[in-house]
Amino acid sequence: MKELIQPSLGLIVWTSVSFLILMVVLRKYAWKPILDAVDERDQKISQAIQAAEEARREVGSLSGERERLLAEVKDERDRIMADAAKTRDIIVSEAKHKATDEASRILETAREAIHNERMAAVTEVRNMAAKLAIDVAEKVLGNHFADQAKQEEFVRAEMDKIKLN
Amino acid sequence: MHHTLQNQANFFRLSSLLLGSKRLSLIVCFGFIFFVSPVLASDSHSGQDSSGSESEFNPVTTILHHVLDNHDWHLFDLPGHDGHDHPVSIPLPIILYSEGQFDLFMSSAFEHGHAQVNKGDRVYALDEHGHILDLAGHSVLDFSITKNVASMLVAVLLLLLIFMSGAKSYEGVHGRPVGIAKVVEPLVLFVRDDIAIPNIGHNYKRYMPYLLTAFFFIWINNLLGLIPSGANFTGNISVTATLAVFTLLITNFSGTKTYWGHIFTPHVPLWLYPIMIPVEMVGIVAKPIALMIRLFANITAGHIIILSLVSLIFVFKSLLIAPVSLVFVLFISCIELLVAALQAYVFTLLSALFIGLALEEPHLEAHH
User: For chain B, how many structural domains are there in total?
Assistant: First the structure.
């Protein structure tokens, strides 16, 4: 039974040598290629996942961008509309003002013209009446007033009594 | 014989105690009931030399013969014309070193221990244990290709074949496993992800060749040992000792300052140093010894159980016991298939654990 736990030199030497050679050979021709291939694949997979993640994030940011642009455009439109409305209001009110001013100016001019015309008409009427009165008086009083200077003084005195207005 | 049986019983009790394995203790008890008791009964009245006895079947000799190493690969016995059984075996090369010279011949030259071999002034013969002696009295170093060595070489060839063709199949397919790599890759990744990385950490890459080679070397040899008439390679103390020494060397050569600090300047009062330092130094050696005994005892125990169950047929000299034996052998063989992988895993796992401990960095120390 001691045999079971009795080491044997030959077996130790053969085992050591074979194991070491096996380890060196397998390291070069098996473990390294296999582990490298697996590592490379893992790397590729993680890269692909990262790229997919990035692409998804990009798509997300693109839709965000679109959303933002849309909102911007809406704002712009609203702003333009508001501006237009304001401009319209300004133009309308300006036009109203101008029209009112013009109207009042025309009215004023008209009033002035009327006044002037009336004044001219009154003067003319007065002059004409005076002349008529003189003519009539001349005819009536031809004889009475032989002296020209007496006559004119009399007429002027009479004229001043006449108030047209 | 009583004495040796007692030794055997003590040895296995001791080993099961050492290993703390319920499974092993169970197997040992089981083995005792079926294997030792009939032996004790038969042994008490036979009392003769077991090797020469044809009439009395001795399971201990038979089992030991199968469990131990041999110079030839015994296949079976054929009954000869003279009424004796003649062993049929594959002869293996004998390589001996004696007196500064190598002697090379085939094991068939010994004619199963009946003949001597003369080489110059050296006369080689087999003793009753199958060891080679020089009858002229010179000391002999035996480097023969024994049954175990031959079995190991078969395993090495298988490993080279499997893993090199596995690695080759990665070429030009963009790292996608095809063919045998589909089987090889999950196993390799198991060793990497479940043994190396959790125990060693980020420095695991340096140790992958050793861990992978050890795992598959032990596993394949365990499996080859389960083939009927196969060798008991991983159940040989020389083999497990060699593997354990590799782990010992790798562990201690990768030891960091912290690791050696724990051993030579442990965090205990100074007066405890004379106790602690020897204890720590025993710890260096105890770890690989545990590896050595665990693998050796588990595999050898498995072989002994199966052989004992088969021996029952011959002990009871009845074919009626054969179906019972067969069922038990089948059952234990299934367990042994599991144990073959399990022990390879345990050996590699503990090696990785010891390496991981030796690589301990100072920052871990701050936590305890």
Answer: 3
pLDDT at B51 over 60: no
Domain of A114? 35-161
Tell me whether residue B75 is in a domain.
Answer: no
Question: Is any Cβ of chain B less than 8 angstroms from the Cβ of A103?
Answer: no
- In a domain, residue B81? The reply is no
B23-43 tens-digit pLDDT: 544 444 444 444 443 333 333
A14 pLDDT higher than 90 = yes
* SS3 state at B62: helix
What is the b/e burial string over A72-93, where b = at least 16 CB atoms within 10 angstroms of the residue's CB? Answer: eeeeeeeeeeeeeeeeeeeeee
In a domain, A29, yes or no: no
Task: List, as ranges, residues 20-39 from A with C-beta within 8 Å of B.
Answer: 21-23, 25-27, 29-31, 33-35, 37-38
The Cα–Cα gap between B194 and B190 comes to 5
In a domain, A74, yes or no: yes
Say yes or no: B331 and B360 in one domain. yes
pLDDT tens for B240-263 read 999 999 999 999 999 888 888 888
The three-state secondary structure class of B12 is helix
- Out of A10, A38, A44, whose CB is closest to B144? A10
Chain B neighbors of A19, CB-CB under 8 A: 213, 217, 242-243, 246
- Is the domain of B256 the same as that of B331? yes
- The pLDDT value recorded for residue A142 is 66
Residue A30 has its nearest CB partner, among B4, B164, B205, at B164
Same domain as B13, residue B125: no
Beta strands in chain B (DSSP E): 72-79, 85-91, 93-98, 101-106, 117-119, 122-126, 132-134, 141-142
Instruction: Give residue B267's pLDDT.
Output: 83
A157 assigned to some structural domain? yes
* Nearest chain A residue to B1, by CA: A1
